[in-house]
Amino acid sequence: MVKEGIPFVLATLIIAVFFAVLYYWVGGITPLIGFALFILLTAFMAYFFRDPQRNIPVEADIIVSAADGRVTRVEERENGKFVSVFLSPLDVHVNRAPIAGKIVKVEYIKGKKNPATSDKASLINERNSLTIEGEKMTVVCTQIAGIVARRIVCWSKTGDNLKLGEKFGLIKFSSRTDLLMPNEVEVLVKAGDRVIGGETIIARLN
Asked: Are 140 and 177 contacting, i.e. CB atoms less than 8 angstroms apart?
C-alpha cells in the first residue's frame, strides 16, 4: 500500500473501533452497524491504495500504459497520437512512467472536478502534465482529477530520470490519465480495452 493511503485506513479504523467500544458498553444494533460499515470502509481504503508489483516489459521502443483502467479514447491529433485511460475507484491508482527518460517539464493546473470521462476534462479539470524526454521520443503524460478525485499526487519533479514503468505518482479516487505520443508510433490498443499500468504495451515506435 502506498503511504498516502495510511491516513485514510487509520481514520476509518479508529471510527470502527469507536463503534466497537460503544457496542461493548451500550449494545444495540446501531453501533454494530456502524462498526461493520467502517470495517468495510477500512478494507476498501486498504484495497484502493494497494501498490502491486508489476512485470515491466524489456522490449525497446515501446510505450506502456501509465495507469490501470479502461481505454476510453484513441485519437490521431495534429500534435501526435492520443490515448486516454479512465480509472474507476476499483482500479489501482498508482501512475507509472510510459517511457524511460528525463522529465523536462512538470505543469500543474488547479482546475475543476468535472467527470473525468468528459471531453472537456483535459482542458478544465485539475491536472498535472509531465513531459518525459526519452532517447528516441518525447511523451506527455497527464494526470487528470475526476468528480470524485480529491488530490493529484506527483512524487517526481523536473530533472528527474524515470525508468520505464517506474512509479511517479497517483490520483486519489476515480480519475483519468492521458498520453500524448509522437505521430510515428503505432498504437496497439483500442477504446474499451483494459490496460495495466507499467505492463500493457499501448504503442510502439515504428
From this structure: no
What count of other Cβ atoms lies within 10 Å of the Cβ of residue 156? 18
Buried b / exposed e along 70-84 (16+ C-beta atoms within 10 A): bbbebeeeeebbbbb
Between CA 24 and CA 193 the distance in angstroms is 49
Fold of 62-205: Glucose Permease (Domain IIA) (2.70.70)
Domain boundaries, the chain: 3-48, 62-205
What interhelical angle do 29-48 and 6-25 show, nearest 10?
Answer: 160
Residues with catalytic roles: 175
Tens digit of each residue's pLDDT, the chain (206 residues): 788 878 889 999 999 999 888 877 877 778 888 889 999 999 988 988 899 999 999 999 999 999 999 999 999 998 999 999 999 888 999 999 999 999 999 999 887 766 666 666 667 788 899 999 999 999 999 999 877 655 789 999 999 999 999 999 998 776 889 999 999 999 999 999 999 999 999 999 98
- Residue partners of 136: CB distance under 8 A and separation at least 6: 61, 205
